[in-house]
């Protein structure tokens, strides 16, 4: 009996494995065709000045509009795209699509100052990244200084010497560089200072506890103060409430991004959001005495 039960357990496990493998294969073949079937789309999340008054930029965030499964968030397919190497053509598409969108907005008279694009580790390893960035700027005519590339700590620490040289070459093109999700890795600000970075994005996990959680408050204030002394421009991610926004502004954070201002929006929805003006995003705690 025990043997039989064990056998059944084994078979069940096996069947489960097969389901997982099957799902993975389905996802993978779907992912392979998604580019030519034009199933990817970019949403854009506004980044606003710390007083909530002006748009500072947008971050492009990819989604997969699957014919059966609907809109799939990046967390559910980027890891598979990285494993399979599909992230390279997908990442190149993101860069092209987002830069073309910026130029289209320019032509329509819509002022989006800066575009941030997320890079994956696989894209960062290759020297072709330089060519891709160079080409997209040449083809679209977008000013390099309006393009910001977001990288993560682990991408830098994998091979710091190589990273320093690649970042240096990207900087020479004139693009801006930012460190995403700061605080989730193991690098210190002094380590990061070895890299030519412009922006530092404080991870959402620190913002979540603001303003009431003393530890989150202390850590966030310290990060912002140090980052500013080291000449990083600080961006806070995941700002969901006015209280969080006010705390961050008072702590010296320059730029805010999060659901309080807006979720990531389709290009068309961003146009409407901008046309409505940013007054709906203004922080109630801003006193307007001009000393911020
Ligand atoms: P990320 O770069 O840190 O992007 C911020 C994520 O936080 C986005 O999730 C955004 O929708 C979400 N978010 C923004 N504000 C708030 C808020 O106030 N509250 C909460 N709870 N969440 C907020 P999303 O779009 O699902 O993207 C997840 C991650 O997928 C990104 O994290 C980024 O690492 C990756 N990703 C997205 N697009 C791309 C891409 O084009 N290429 C690559 N390589 N990675 C991408
Ligand atoms: Mg990002
Ligand atoms: Mg982030
Ligand atoms: Mg994040």
Automatic annotation (TrEMBL):
Signal peptide range in chain numbering: none
Full protein segment contained here: 773 to 1064 of 1066
Protein name: EAL domain-containing protein
Lineage, broadest ranks: Bacteria, Pseudomonadati, Pseudomonadota, Betaproteobacteria, Neisseriales
Organism: Vogesella aquatica
Domain EAL: 24-278
């Amino acid at each position: 009996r025990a043997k039989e039960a064990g056998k059944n357990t084994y078979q069940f496990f096996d069947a489960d494995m097969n389901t997982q493998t099957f799902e993975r294969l389905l996802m993978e073949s779907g992912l392979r065709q998604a580019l030519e079937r034009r199933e990817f789309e970019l949403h854009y999340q506004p980044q606003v000045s710390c007083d909530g008054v002006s748009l500072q930029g947008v971050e492009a965030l990819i989604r997969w509009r699957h014919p059966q499964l609907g809109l799939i968030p990046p967390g559910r397919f980027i890891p598979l795209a990285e494993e399979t190497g599909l992230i390279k053509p997908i990442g190149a598409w993101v860069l092209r699509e987002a830069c073309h969108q910026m130029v289209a907005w320019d032509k329509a008279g819509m002022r989006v100052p800066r575009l941030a694009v997320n890079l994956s580790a696989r894209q960062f390893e290759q020297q072709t990244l330089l060519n891709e960035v160079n080409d997209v700027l040449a083809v679209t005519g977008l000013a390099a200084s309006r393009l910001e590339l977001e990288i993560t700590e682990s991408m830098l620490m994998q091979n710091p010497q190589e990273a320093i040289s690649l970042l240096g070459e990207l900087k020479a093109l004139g693009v801006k560089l930012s460190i995403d999700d700061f605080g989730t890795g193991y690098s210190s600000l002094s380590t990061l200072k070895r890299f030519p970075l412009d922006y530092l994005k404080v991870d959402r996990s620190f913002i979540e506890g603001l303003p009431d959680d003393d530890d989150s408050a202390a850590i966030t204030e310290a990060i912002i103060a140090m980052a500013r002394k080291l000449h990083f421009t600080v961006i806070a991610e995941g700002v969901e409430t006015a209280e969080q926004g006010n705390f961050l502004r008072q702590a010296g954070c320059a730029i805010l991004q999060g659901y309080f201002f807006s979720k990531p929006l389709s290009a068309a929805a961003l146009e409407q959001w901008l046309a409505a003006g940013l007054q709906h995003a203004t922080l109630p705690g801003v006193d307007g005495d001009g000393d911020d």
